[in-house]
Amino acid sequence: MQSSTPAGRAGRPRSAAADTAILAATRAALVDLGWSKLTLGDVATRAGVAKTTLYRRWAGKNELVVDAVAELFDELELPDSGSLAADIEGVVLQFATILARPEAASGLMAVVAESTRDAALRERIRTSIVERQKRLVLEGRARAEARGELPPEPDAGQAGRTVDLIFDLVAGAVVHRTLVSAGAADEEWVRDLSRVLLTGLAGTVQEPAAPR
Amino acid sequence: MQSSTPAGRAGRPRSAAADTAILAATRAALVDLGWSKLTLGDVATRAGVAKTTLYRRWAGKNELVVDAVAELFDELELPDSGSLAADIEGVVLQFATILARPEAASGLMAVVAESTRDAALRERIRTSIVERQKRLVLEGRARAEARGELPPEPDAGQAGRTVDLIFDLVAGAVVHRTLVSAGAADEEWVRDLSRVLLTGLAGTVQEPAAPR
Amino acid sequence: MQSSTPAGRAGRPRSAAADTAILAATRAALVDLGWSKLTLGDVATRAGVAKTTLYRRWAGKNELVVDAVAELFDELELPDSGSLAADIEGVVLQFATILARPEAASGLMAVVAESTRDAALRERIRTSIVERQKRLVLEGRARAEARGELPPEPDAGQAGRTVDLIFDLVAGAVVHRTLVSAGAADEEWVRDLSRVLLTGLAGTVQEPAAPR
Amino acid sequence: MQSSTPAGRAGRPRSAAADTAILAATRAALVDLGWSKLTLGDVATRAGVAKTTLYRRWAGKNELVVDAVAELFDELELPDSGSLAADIEGVVLQFATILARPEAASGLMAVVAESTRDAALRERIRTSIVERQKRLVLEGRARAEARGELPPEPDAGQAGRTVDLIFDLVAGAVVHRTLVSAGAADEEWVRDLSRVLLTGLAGTVQEPAAPR
DNA sequence: TGCTAACCGAGACGGTACGTCGGGTCTTAGT
DNA sequence: ACTAAGACCCGACGTACCGTCTCGGTTAGCA
């Protein structure tokens, strides 16, 4: 009979503004209340939105917070400071700065905790946050190769393993420093970290070639 | 946790068995339900204890879980494998093994998340879990010095900084690998990690000395 | 319900079929769900109509159900059985039969309950249902007078009062019997009722005769 | 181990005051809001009680309101006015007065409406309200017999049927008059009603006798 | 035949109340 | 003074309907 309802078309379309408002409200609530006292009702109120609207778009607190936090890490960008070491220090410092913000720390750790029992959530975290930021490592390597600081990586498999290890080392160390050891991830600490990292990788990755 | 009937003594003394039962029940509940679905009522039931009893001894869910999880890490011990590298690999692997258990991962991450907004809880985690296990780093260093693998650290302040950094690196990397990257922290990965670590530290901390 | 294109006329006229479908769907929903679980969304779905269409024509659940139920009572008609007593029994039995239908009972009682706090609704019920059926009492009296069973009523005011009383007695008794006492309003019961009624009225209406 | 927990014994006993407060709050809410806008949350608040306490004792709105309304009718008592006619008028007037109160009308009709789809509720209404008040009819008859106004009823079955009919007639008529016809059930109307009733019953039930 | 206004379906929207669940406290009786 | 049991107040949960509001699309009736 009718043909011009291509797939899902009829009815009032979803408000695009609502998404934005809800994610912002979620971050604000994380700042004020932290994960455990954050309620979806409160988020809805802050966003000027009905609770139902929120549930229509996200399955629950976990999914909502993942999205809200993921946006935070999109701010990260690789500074072009002229040397690999400086580049690393710069981006690690940015990461530490973001993680020092209460909405990032509280939200991220909580969803990671939840994800230990929810594979779908774990996957969502990985794609929305982790994989998404590996771009920084890749960019950094490319830039360093261009500068001649690093030889081109011949083996793609090995390269992937190294990127993963770097990421776990950096992200893990910053998180642990900030949240568990309760120390400041300041410039000095970041310098120590990146020095260990660079030296360690230099001496490891191209094992046979460089006797240093 | 509780005093040993300080002075005033009348009345029935607290059951010592209850403490043990409650902590075990807490871990069991963490395994079955995870942090967020764990309820104190359920823990009490599993422990065969009234909710009242539980609240008389712990302030709430957070404190209870910290204690329950802390016990897990007391299992860690430094194997004497003959070389620093092997020692490190051994203990890191143990750590990864414990962290792979659902009650450890779920519980630990959750209380860390909570601790971002609760200084007292953060302190409790630090003393009950983190500082308590730094013994491993210290033992390892001492043993390595005795073997002649490392020179004695002259500067105590510098030594502390290095221990902290090592701890953040190792613990952070394992946690990130296990929970976020969702990769196995297996022997191969641990070998990569400890190689980077040793090389990095050797080339950094005692700059002039070590040619390796 | 709606005017017949009052003056401004352009545009598509309302579907007449929709009204019919909606009222039928309402009765069907009353049968299946009863008043309290009846939802307008469900009625709309059953009628194959959008919720909007429904709200464009009725103010709410109450008004809709009044109209849906009112139609049921238009089925009533006064049988010509030859005697006043038989006529009364016949019509009362019809009334009882209708009231035994779940859509009538459930819907009618519910709107009456609502009407205790809503004068407009009460008026709507009175005009759409009650007054509309008083025709039966008037017809019955006229027929009885024609037969010579009753003397002509001289005083119009008094006549009105009597009609009202009869109506309250009959309708009230049937409703109470059916819904509250949970007894069947069967032929035997109806015979008892109409005998009491006729006797009582006969001894009463012609007041002046009996000094009491 | 323990034996002296006879059946249901352990734990804090239910507050008796809460029941009273809740029923009173229910009636107050009926007055202010009517049935359909009455919410259990609001009743709980008015009663100074948690919603859970309320749900622990009543299955829902219907059951609660039945109990709340039932208490109202316990106020009814048969006045001893010296004659059967006057006794009837007196008690009918009392009944009408109670029914004129908004909490009675709104609540009673609503639960009757609900009861059309819920046999358990219907039974609860019958026992808690209807049967409970038949005492009035029985008392009235006994008193009239003692006065010699009525001959003793020989047949018990017939007596029951008559009592039921009277009850349906009186209660039904008053309800219909008050709620549907929207007329006042005042002294004059009550006199008309009871006259019809007495006459009708006198001429019917003891067919042969009726001297009057 | 083509305009155009009022209609129609679908479905998202801001709300309100639901009935349930868990947190932590308190009141019993029993050890 | 402890314990188990369980009722208590509180507040959040996720769901269901309410009645309103856009949408895109249809369908008379007048020109």
Task: Please characterize this protein's 3D structure.
The structure is a homotetramer of 212-residue chains. Chain A is mostly helical and 212 residues long. Helix content of chain A is 73%, strand content 0%. Chain A has helices at 16-37, 40-47, 51-57, 61-73, 84-100, 102-115, 119-147, 156-180, 187-205. The longest helix of chain A is centred in the middle third of the chain and has 29 residues, at 119-147. The first copy, chain A, is elongated, with a radius of gyration of 21 Å. Chain A starts with 15 loop residues before the first helix and ends in a 7-residue tail after the last helix. Chains C and D meet through α1, α6, α7, α8 and α9 of C and α1, α6, α7, α8 and α9 of D. The structure holds a DNA duplex (31 and 31 nucleotides).
Descriptive terms for the model:
disordered N terminus; Tetracycline Repressor, domain 2; about 210 residues; mainly alpha; DNA-binding
